[in-house]
């Protein structure tokens, strides 16, 4: 099993990132969200140009396996993880871990001391295993549907490189 490679988001990634986003929501969130909630959530990719602009305006990384994009993650501003999505066919192959490791390192290098994420219910356990702590529950309205998520934070100072002063 190969380790995912990372590269920056490119404008030509718009269609594939939208497809990963939708497939991830449709196939991985049914235990936590209704079909109506999933459809409302996935609708963020309906306007591909708007979706691409969102990713272009952030520090967005694409994870690839054998050159094929299989996931992506984005950092909004210096310290907020906006998106982390892995294609369902590649879950469990270190794609999400590779992406989040990179975002944590990049955020730390940019001076962030704490990272935040509004984790969906199905992603909260992934973030908790990585040292993120739940701070508050939220509800957001998307196209008339209410979805719950959890704001989680992680201190980057706690994960400083060995030998680094803390």
TrEMBL record:
Any Pfam family the entry gives: Acetyltransf_10
Bilayer-crossing residues are none
UniProt-recorded Gene Ontology molecular function terms:
acyltransferase activity, transferring groups other than amino-acyl groups
Residue stretches making up the N-acetyltransferase domain: 20-157
Q: What is its EC number?
A: 2.3.1.-
**Which of UniProt's keywords are assigned here?**
Acyltransferase, Transferase
Q: Which InterPro entries match?
A: Acyl_CoA_acyltransferase (IPR016181), GNAT_dom (IPR000182), N-acetyltrans/Recomb-assoc (IPR052564)
Task: Output the PROSITE patterns linked to this UniProt entry.
Answer: GNAT
Protein name as catalogued: GNAT family N-acetyltransferase
